Each structure stands twice: as structure tokens, then as C-alpha cells.
Amino acid sequence: MFFEHWKNLTDLTFYEAIEQPFYWYAILLLLVLFISLIAFRKFRKELIEVFHDEDGHVQITPNALHELVKKSCEGISGVFSPSTTIQRKRSAIRLNIRIRVQQNCNIKEIRSTLQKNIEKTLIENLSFTNFEGVDVIIKGFQEEA
After folding, report:
1. 3-state helix, strand, coil in the chain (%, to 5)
2. Which residues have a Cβ under 8 Å from the Cβ of 93 and sit 6 or more positions away?
3. Exposed (0-12), middle (13-18) or buried (19+): which is 99, by Cβ within 10 Å?
4. 3-class secondary structure, 29
5. What pLDDT is attached to residue 5?
6. 41 to each of 34, 38, 45, 53, 119, how far by Cα in Å?
7. Torsion from C-alpha of 123, 128, 132, 133, nearest 10 degrees
8. What is the model's pTM?
9. Coil/strand/helix, residue 137
């Protein structure tokens, strides 16, 4: 009986099908599943492992890592609006930092200072064992104040 009903539903034209409640229920179910999947991914707390030893694991949230990068950028003159993307390859972590810089600044100097600050914070202070490095992306230029 179900297969006969299913065969009748598959033979309908588009306009006949949208009048059937079965298709509306299926569309509604797909929409609810899609929204649930998006909500689940958005509210999921991803933790990044800093290190582990015999006493246990130490982990950090991505928001805390973004905050550390922002604080590291505040001390460098000529750097504005930092934003961070975290790349993971297996257990290794690499940071993409997008910044705005002043027009007349030395980009090589800013990059090396930023890398040193972040590496000092993550490796020396927080003992990251899986940190691979920093990539700097300039997203624009800031007018001089």
C-alpha cells in the first residue's frame, strides 16, 4: 500500500505535488533539520588543546585565542582592527591574522614584531606545544591620525 501511494506521488507534476500535504511536510522537516544543524554548529564549543601531560589537559576557547591576538596587536603602533582565523591540521594550529596598517609603516617590522609577540605569548607563557606559526594578511590601510 505504501509503495502504491509512493508511486502515485512520484508521478505527480510539480503543481499537483505542491497541493499534496505530504510534500509540504517533507519540506518542513528538511527546513527544521537544516536550521537545527546550523544552530548546533553555531553553539558548539570548540576547544583547542594547548598541551597535555600526566596531570591532565589544558584547553583554550577560540574566543580567548582571538582576544590574545587582539591584545598582542594593541601594543604595536600602526596596527589596527586585528581579526584572527584559526587553521587546524590534525593537532597543529596556525593563525591567520588580518590587520589594517598605516600607509607609511614598515610592514616587515610589523610582521616580525607581531609574530614575536604572539609566539612569546603562546609558546613561552601558555606552553603551546602544537603552535606552528602566524600568517599576516593586510586587509587595508588606515589613515594617519
Report:
1. 45, 30, 20
2. 48, 86, 87, 128, 130, 131, 132
3. buried
4. helix
5. 59
6. 11, 5, 9, 29, 30
7. -40
8. 0.63
9. strand
Mean per-residue pLDDT over the chain, rounded? 82
Using alpha carbons only, how large is the chain's radius of gyration in Å? 25
36: its cell numbers: 537545527
Task: Please state which CATH class domain 59-142 belongs to.
Answer: alpha beta
Euclidean distance between CA atoms 102 and 17, whole angstroms: 60
Interatomic CA distance for residues 89 and 136, integer angstroms: 18
The pLDDT tens digits for 98-142 are 988 888 888 888 888 888 888 888 888 888 878 888 888 988 887
Half-sphere exposure of 82 (CA within 13 A, CB side): 26
Q: Which of 145, 130, 135 is nearest to 69 (CA)?
A: 135
Parse the chain into domains and list their residue ranges. Answer: 2-43, 59-142
